[in-house]
Amino acid sequence: MRIVEARVIVTCPGRNFVTLKIVTEDGVSGVGDATLNGRELAVVAYLEEHVVPLLIGRDPARIEDTWQYLYKGSYWRRGPVTMTAIAAVDTALWDIKGKVAGLPVYQLLGGRSREGVTVYGHANAATAEELMPEIARFVARGYRAVRVQTGIPGLSSVYGVGHKGDSYEPANAALPEEAVWDTALYLDHVPRVFADVRAEFGPHLRLLHDVHHRLTPIEAARLGRSLEPFALTWLEDPVPAELQDGFRLIRQHTTTPLAVGEVFNTVWDCHELITSQLIDYIRTTVVHAGGITHLRRIFDLAALHHVRSGSHGATDLSPVCMAAALHLDLAIPNFGLQEYMPHPPEADEVFPHGYHFEDGYLHPSETPGLGVDIDEELAARYPYRPASLPVNRLTDGTLHSW
Ligand code: KDG
Ligand code: MG
Questions:
Q1: Per-residue pLDDT at 172
Q2: Residue nearest to atom 7 of ligand 1 (CA)
């Protein structure tokens, strides 16, 4: 069997998504997510100009060999654009393999290691008072774990605090919006919020918080220590993570568990974090970390070092990525948590899928392959819209990060 066609489909049902569809000479097709938030068209060009011509005529069954060929054969290894493109190919090939075998992909990965995939949702609110009903909404729907983010008194907008409701969309303007950030206000406010949340919801609800890379290691250590009484499941992205050694300093000072990895794209971004046991959860996911093949490699390394998975699952990862992530989540021994932000209805219609939420768990589709597709006619009705992630400046105007 040979690959005869590979199409790159760009659509914007509520937000931009890039999808690769690979078709074989027998008419079997597979899909892969290729969405890189705010840099979507760079991946489109990489795929169309450099990858698709290499796929035509290849054997779709050779997943590992194709992965190695695209990774090593380009000379220029790694990087988010390259690895997102490779991920899309890899995911589509696993989809095809499942369809050809007549099995859901998780069966090809070793079968079920659990009954369902425990997910966490995002409770966001501008104020601490508005936050409690938001968290209660998740508890009422059966969520066992909730990420808690609030506005900070004195700051007009805070990255990662979405509007009320399920959708979380930080890429909100064609050119990046700019906000002001103040670490002292933040460090003062967040422990008070968690004290209130624990008082209201008791000790058993699993709570998470995302710092969005905005602290230095010693500031993060202080935050982690001040949150210890509230027993978070994880503190996410406490510092920018290019310097893996930064986590060593945080680790020396706090027992609050640490999660990182949504911006990583290979095992080389986290091998020190994992092998030195500097983190507790690795948040790499299918679309940005080289597909199912490479993510499995990262998770296997993590399993050896007491690190569990906690894959990124915000709405800028398409339902194709979510479907693929769920198959891997179900199969690996060291699954921790899966982030889940439901997509808006128009995105769900463009990407018909069989995974479903029930009682705090997501369950992948039982149909052969990934159990997700793209409705290309419908997708064509939602043209691409430029959208960028915002930036933060400190009060004196210095560029910070998010
Ligand atoms: O594209 C960036 C978003 O996916 C990111 O800001 C979401 O931090 C995020 C999270 O944890 O979901
Ligand atoms: Mg995050």
A1: 82
A2: 314
